[in-house]
Amino acid sequence: MGTNQTAAIKDVSLSDNALKVAQRIGSLRDFLDFLAEHGQCITWPEAVLPEPDIRDIAVAAGRDAMNGPALLFDDIKGYPGKRLALGVHGSFTNLALLLGHPKGTTIKELFYDIISRWGSDKPLLERVPMDQAPIHENRIDSDFNLYDLLPLYRINEYDGGFYIGKANVVSRDPHDPDNFGKQNVGIYRIQPQGKDIFTLLSVPSHDMGRMIIAAERDDKPLKIAVMLGNHPAMAMFAATPIGYDESEFAYASQMMGCPLRLTDSGNGMDILADSEIVIEAELIHGSRQYEGPFGEFPGSYSGVRMAPQFKVTGISHRDNPIFENIYIGKGWTEHDTLIGLNTSAPIYAKLKEDFPEVEAVNALYQHGLTGIISVKNRFSGFAKSVAMRALGTPHGLMYLKNLIMVDDDVDPFDLNQVMWALSTRTRADDIIVVPNMPMIIIDPAAEVPGKGHRLIIDATSFMPPDKVGADAQIVSPPGGPKIDALAKVIQALQQEQQGGQS
């Protein structure tokens, strides 16, 4: 462990506090305790109904995207003894604490921290024997009943059934099952269809979608392990668009700068040794079932679709397990906080390879359906070329629908500055619309599911050979680290004053 730890420090240059936090947090339980110490996790004091109480409380907590707390429910009517966690990644303060930062850390600062840790998928992983792994404290090998195991409820009022929305699903490439890099960990929506049957929805461009197609086409088995209640870094990277042959386990551990503990599942997957619950299952070839509607991240209900079915083959869980779920719907929700920065980082990394002038990428909004990219403009039309490249990144291919390009003097995470750029630097011929492009099937604006437009708005400054108006000289207010530091002093003085008045 010591050797790996040293490599982590060298590779990602973590602060002492970041390493201290990483070494302390080995599981969801550890993180909930850590958040509670900082006033960022609330155990709900009263009994709640699965519906609508859980949904209502989650929505109320999610209104504060900067400081909203995680929620722990341990008294759910109809589910005696069951526990549920929501909003674990529901605010940027929770993310800041996970990464070793104090409360008040800005989104922009978190972005630059994440990209400073990005780029190495060197595994920092430890193996734990199955008989020593907390996940295997309890084992079920027959008579499976998902409805008895989990405190299930409809995430949104008109969902077509109960949904598991924050599972980390582990799968292996059907043609290369021993390749660790091709072992995918992803978040896919899961709808129980019976006591031991569930559907899993994925699109062909997702790693899971590719595996399902390959398994059925070539008559190969496809086994999966559905991990519930996971290390908070794992949940972030299960939703991060990285390469097909890159390991989410490796990225998550390297990002934290501290090893994650892996063990074997009963069906041969690598799983986190300290997760709360794992459901092992196998694809039923050629079997489809109607699933949906579901209140999705664009804020609309997706339609009813035929989805592949999986049959449960085994279950393990910790003593007194915590079921972790998510509220997802019309933004802002935990979905946006969970994946926003980790969607922005790989887009930035890809663009930076070809265009070192790229300064930052904000793809926080609805999984990047709208993105904002800041770039040092080189010449007229340069920003449009960068935008075109962004559309060809793995995530941009299916998600980046509306792109706003701004100069490097505009903070893409400050919408006031972005709106200023749109208001003062956009001309009619700075707008490009590309129709009939591939698009995620749940885009509510699509006339045909799976196809949509691309909109590029160039709100960067005018460069030769652009014509420049008579009053184009821009005011340059003071900025930089000095102003950032003063803003934090002001914030601290406000908090001190508020504390004295309470």
Structure description:
The chain contains 14 helices and 22 strands. The chain starts with a helix and ends with a helix. The model is unreliable at 1-10 (pLDDT under 50). By secondary structure, the chain is α+β, with helices and mostly antiparallel strands. 48% of the residues are buried. The protein has helices spanning 2-12, 16-24, 28-37, 53-62, 92-98, 107-117, 146-149, 207-217, 232-238, 248-256, 334-354, 382-391, 415-425, 481-501, and strands at residues 41-43, 70-73, 83-86, 125-127, 138-140, 168-171, 184-186, 189-194, 197-201, 223-228, 260-264, 270-272, 277-291, 294-295, 301-302, 305-317, 322-324, 358-365, 370-375, 402-407, 431-438, 451-458.
Regions with pLDDT < 50 over 5+ consecutive residues? 1-10
Envelope shape: globular
| Quaternary structure | single chain
Mean pLDDT: 90
How many helices in DSSP terms?
Answer: 14
Helix content: 25-40%
* Main beta-sheet annotation: 8 strands, antiparallel
Radius of gyration: 23 Å
How many strand segments?
A: 22
Ends distance: 46 Å
Assess the beta-strand content as a share of residues: 15-25%
The secondary-structure class comes to alpha+beta
